[in-house]
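HOLO CASE FILE
Compound: pyridoxal-5'-phosphate
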Amino acid sequence: MNIKLNDHFLEVKETYLFSDIAKRVKKFQEDNPDREIIRMGIGDVTLPLPDSVTSAMEEAVKEMSDKDTFHGYPPEYGYAFLREAIAAHYKDIGAPTVTPEIIYVSDGAKSDLGNLPDILGDNPVIIPDPVYPVYVDSNIMNGRKISFASGNEENGFLPLPPSAEGTAPSVIYLCSPNNPTGAVYNYEGLTAWVDFALATGSLIIFDAAYEAFITEDKPHTIYEIPGAENCAVEVSSFSKFAGFTGVRCGWTVVPDTLEVNGVKLSKFWARRQATKFNGVSYVTQKGAAASLSGKGLEDCKANIAYYKRNAAALAEVFTAKGIYFTGGVNSPYIWLKCPGNMGGWEFFDLILGRFGIVGTPGEGFGSNGSGFFRLTAFGSYENTIKACGYFREL
Ligand code: PLP
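Model generated. Tokens follow.
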């Protein structure tokens, strides 16, 4: 062919992280066929959907089989019942300004995070390091220039903004609670970013995918911070909160107050979604709505509590051993400093060989991840407790 490709795709770093992990685990299994493997590298939920949610979906399926209650294409930005349920959730977490009209339902946070650069021009981009790799890769694909905000031991992996003076209007990605570090901004930290964005005329893209894990007094949404409605969009998801990683549903909040030269950002996002996306199925949206109220909400919270108990058990071990880590509270992730100045891969091989535990080397999440390691709390309680016993021997 003689067509031109988007050569920016060639600039995206090939990641061999998960294939490298799989290769090493396979070799370990071949060499040690009788050893048990404890998987603590998974970023996916493992508990099934609660009956309260699946029965709402079953009802919706039945409606689809009846000519009087059948649903065709869903409304472009989501059914009113789901947008209203999400808005009620925002009211509960202290952000009543998030009303149904500014909520755009989608098939998940990853799609929205990857698609938002479609409506933005060629701005400088600020992304924390380490972080969920989708922000970096989707901006590279669009040819954007990225600068990194360094997360490290000194700032507890919660980088603060640079000086506003002399900083060009930028697009800033923030993720709190963070994947992979589990670190969560407090009110002061998030206010510093909102003030920076307002002072520089920047836009914050706030990823709240792990909001449901917050138990301490920390912001659940960027809209708890005054002024955020003038500088931030928020992307969130039913994946980790309601176990929808395989069902697929999320949303993005685009306040009508976000404007550039009199043009509303919401107008562009609405246009983008209406043109390139055909909505989320009725059955899925019914399930999502069921997870936000009554028994559904109670059951989803119980599942989150199960994972949090795992995270707390791991945190207790590393605290007792004096190993530096972030996360463990307000998050399903533990981000620990590899003991003895080991690199992430060295630690990976050590705990796989000695204990049969599989985690994720921090090197996979940015250059500041080197020498760190991510463990997840999404496994079973029994395996987590087994792993805790092994880590105590370290
Ligand atoms: N944002 C973060 C920080 C994540 O860790 C993930 C998934 O692991 C996502 C977004 C993707 O969410 P979704 O399943 O809704 O696409």
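CASE NOTES: Residues 43, 108-110, 132, 175, 179, 207, 209, 237, 239, 245, 250 surround pyridoxal-5'-phosphate (CB under 6 Å). Residues 15-44+297-391 form a domain with the Aspartate Aminotransferase, domain 1 fold (CATH 3.90.1150.10).
CLOSED: yes
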